[in-house]
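User: I'm new to structure prediction. If I give you an amino acid sequence, what do you actually give back? Let's try with this one:
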Amino acid sequence: MKVVWRLEDATVREVYETLRERRHVAYTTVMTMMSTLEAKGYLKRTLEGRAFRYRPARPERRVMSAIVQEFVDRVFDGASRPLLAHLVTESRLSKAERDELRRLIDEAP
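Assistant: Good question. You get back a string of structure tokens that encode the predicted 3D arrangement of the chain. For your 109 residues, that looks like this:
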């Protein structure tokens, strides 16, 4: 999704080539993931010649929220607290990151 947001629209090949610059990934994996994201409504596609061009179907913030909520529902039975506790205790947060988390919690409605 990040690659498609950055490029604004892209083919599977373009996303694959962009991802390959940073890590090894199979073309078929990229194709499957983009098809899944399209089926879930996160991407829209149009036929251009012999290839599909994909573009974001929703704004980045809405998609991130939906994906995180889906993860929390699936892995933590919908409870955010265990995820946050894990991130705080198991990750190496800097003092600045901890301060930012405290600020966000304090400002939350």
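You can read the tokens as a compact description of the fold. Here is one thing that stands out. DSSP finds six helices and two strands in the chain.
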